[in-house]
Amino acid sequence: MEFPTVATRPRNVDWKRAAALLYGDWGTSKAYVPGIAFAIAGTHLGSSYSSVWIILPVSLLTALVGINYIWICKYFPEGGGVYSSAKAHSKYLALIGGFLLVADYVVTASLSCFEAFVYLNFSYEDSKRWAILTIFVIGVINFFGPRHSGTLAVGFALATVVVVGLLAVASIPQLPDAVVNVQRPVGGAWSLWVAFTGAVLALSGVEAIANMTGVMQLDPGSTRARPSVTVTSRKALVTVMAEVVSLTALFGLAMSAIPNMGPKDHEGDMLRHMAQMFVDEPAKQVGWLSWVATQNPFSWIVGVVLGGLLLSATNTAIVALVSVLYLMAKDGELPKLFGMLNRFGVPWIMMLIAMLAPILVIDVQGTEDAVHGLASLYAVGVVGAIAVNLWSCAFNYRLPMLRYERVTMILTFFVMGAIWVTIAITKPFALLFAVTVLGLGFTARALHKGFPIHLPEPLLRMTERLFPEAVAKRRAALNAEAMVEQLQKRLGVRRPVTAIMVAARGVTPTLRFAVEQARVNRAQLFVLFIREQHTSIPVPLVEAEDEEAQEVFNAAKSIAGDVNVTTIYAVSDDPAWTILDNAAIAGVDMLILGHSRRSALTRMLRGDLLERLAAQLPEEIQLVIVN
């Protein structure tokens, strides 16, 4: 029997919700890829109107990588992305992939937030200032507990699909003019390759689907013991991939229909400018629409919707960055200090890193070249993480891959590896950024793990002769530890209870029982109070203003005595999901609940909380119901 060290999260994300969350990350790429490609073509290919020759190959590569990730999700249904797949080969390779993913998320937050304000029609200088302030605010908000942003992500995703769909329809009549304006690239194959590698940002976000498989709903017929999320992940990934690939290619060609654009005129807000030129300007020629069209309404709508989606992507990137670092800390690869939770169940040191790192990255960028500079840093992280993931899966012969899957994945890895090497050669600051992130990560790990020195065999024998007693004691201790572990596995002994959570709505016997259990097991006690909302409108309550919550928390601390108590406050319209989410984040071993106080009618309409919890709670968390 294998003893898990980290609680697994509940599997309650269906393919639609997974697609919306993936779209909030991957779907944002088309907001900046066309403009960045237009600027890159002007630098490397002689004319910005040659950009279609790099956007089309980038779209094909995006589809190829997406197909590879369908297979990755099939063979790694427990989530973790590159960190999990690379761990099958080496913990050091897993850390390299994880730290490259950290670099990716840091720049994702920076670039997404900066681009959001560019789309909201701020100047580059003002966008930089507002992006720094907004990242700080998002970080501070996340200090007060996990924000369930799935509904918000779904809202922005649906609005974006509608708006960019309208823009796509308006772009189709412009294609003949765009084809006429397209120019042949100059400079040879190397210039075309370098330009291509600079525009691979359309890949950004695809790694999110691999991280998400651990919380996806299981396929019909699969179990927690033998999980499969192939159907769920494939539906989500194919849906988003088709939209990203097709619209990136369409917009990349259609923007060439706009004459007389300088390479960097609309590097940061190309879709907004296309909305103005393809919709608002023609509408001005229609008499009854002329006054409205002079206000450029459609370009404003595109700017607001894409700005909101990019801000949502900023929040997603910050939360994902904390999750990756927290996973490493729970695996013992980073100092345990990093995994300390505040009273809201948030690893606050990691949240501080996730907030300050993107701010620093934005701050060091030049104002006018911020988009280009961030794009350069972006590619080195996302391409590196994807390459490590592909290599780890393709050369893991324990995975029952089909021959064509493995061959395709190997070929894709070589393409991604060549792109990463090219970026490292042509963009030294991007390489320096990647090396810095890897250096800081491995330094933190070394300070935690120490610097073990493996002595040569002759020196080891000499050490045994000089210090026989010390060596004998050390070996005896290691042997005893191994014997205890084997005995526990043979007897099926559960791991010790080190953390307990109780969902309390008053000073009840349930709360007192939880305190006693924490005292007996010498465990940390998490007291969760949920202020349930019964409408879709958020309840304007905070912990300090909720008198009932304060009464419960004060009573818990009063009767706890020497028990270590952490209080968590949440406002939610789905208490079952909130309890599951907080239990997973806190890594508890035992969840204590009282019987539901809902009426029979409420249980029928909204579902019984205990039944939902029992169905979705991870097996390694003990569920205790107090009568």
Any idea how many domains? Answer: 3
Question: Judging from the principal axes of the Cα atoms, what is the shape?
Answer: globular
From the 3D structure, determine the CATH topology of the largest domain: Amino acid/polyamine transporter I
Overall SS class: mainly alpha
Q: Looking at this structure, what is the CATH superfamily of the largest domain? A: Amino acid/polyamine transporter I
Largest sheet: 5 strands, parallel
CATH uppermost class of the largest domain: Mainly Alpha
- Average of pLDDT: 79
- What would you report as the Rg, rounded to the nearest angstrom? 27 Å
Feature tags:
single chain; 627 residues; mainly alpha; Amino acid/polyamine transporter I; Rossmann fold; five-stranded parallel beta sheet; 25 helices; globular; disordered N terminus
Task: Kindly describe this structure.
The protein is mainly α and 627 residues long. It has 25 helices and 5 strands. It has helices at residues 15-26, 33-44, 52-75, 82-87, 91-119, 124-142, 150-171, 175-181, 188-198, 207-212, 230-254, 270-283, 290-293, 297-330, 348-363, 370-394, 403-426, 428-449, 457-466, 468-491, 509-521, 547-560, 575-586, 600-606, 609-616, and strands at residues 499-503, 524-532, 565-572, 590-594, 622-626. The longest helix has 34 residues, at 297-330.
